[in-house]
Amino acid sequence: MPFRLVEAEDYIRVPPSDFNKPLEDVALGQLRSKYEGKSFRDLGYVVAVLDAKVNREGVIIFGDGATYHKAIFHILTFMPLDGEVVHGIVESAREVGVMVRIGPVLGFINKIHLMDEPNVLFDASTKSFIGERTKKKLSIGDVVRARITGISYVAQKEGVDLALRITMTMRMPGLGKLEWLKEKKGKKP
């Protein structure tokens, strides 16, 4: 999975109420609030802000009693790649498809991309998909191998934060529920 360690820089605002606190602690709190758990086009999904080095010399802006400091920090990001094959766990199932946890994010697989079959049925009572011909069953908690077919960043309601949207398929050789792949491998001479 494409986890990356990235060095970034930003400015932090230290209000007068935080002047007596260690500068790095103030910076870490602000940077974690601003970055962790959010998606950015150039970074992907930010898992964690790990550390921060803050310039001791700050700037005061007229009319604001706070000081502004340049911070250089390291972040752990998850940047999925289009076409990448990933492993994940089916987290939820609805009639349209399944949500699969891949690392810290969710990806969606439409029901037509779950199996190499023309007709896949949804069983609402068990929240499972069943192949009409092969009777293969895909349920919540199953471990799957899928290929990422699309990555997009969609603006949230407020228009500020971006949501990472990932679409995937399991309709290619070597993809699917891991149990199916093991069974298929065992049948070969």
Automatic annotation (TrEMBL):
It catalyses: RNA(n) + a ribonucleoside 5'-triphosphate = RNA(n+1) + diphosphate. Transmembrane segments: none annotated. PROSITE patterns: S1. One of its GO terms (molecular function) is DNA binding. One of its GO terms (biological process) is DNA-templated transcription initiation. It is an enzyme of class 2 (transferase). Its EC number is 2.7.7.6. The keyword Nucleotidyltransferase applies. GO terms for cellular component: cytoplasm; DNA-directed RNA polymerase complex. InterPro entries: NA-bd_OB-fold, RNA_pol_Rpb7-like_N_sf, RNAP_E/RPC8, RNApol_Rpo7, Rpb7-like, Rpb7-like_N, S1_domain. Keywords: Cytoplasm, DNA-directed RNA polymerase, Nucleotidyltransferase, Transcription, Transferase. It is found in: Cytoplasm. Residues 83-165 form the S1 motif domain. HAMAP family: RNApol_arch_Rpo7 (MF_00865). Belongs to the eukaryotic RPB7/RPC8 RNA polymerase subunit family. NCBIfam families: PRK08563.1 (NF006333), rpoE (TIGR00448). Part of the RNA polymerase complex. Forms a stalk with Rpo4 that extends from the main structure. DNA-dependent RNA polymerase (RNAP) catalyzes the transcription of DNA into RNA using the four ribonucleoside triphosphates as substrates. Forms 2 domains with an elongated structure; Rpo4 packs into the hinge region between the 2 domains. This is DNA-directed RNA polymerase subunit Rpo7. The gene is rpoE1.
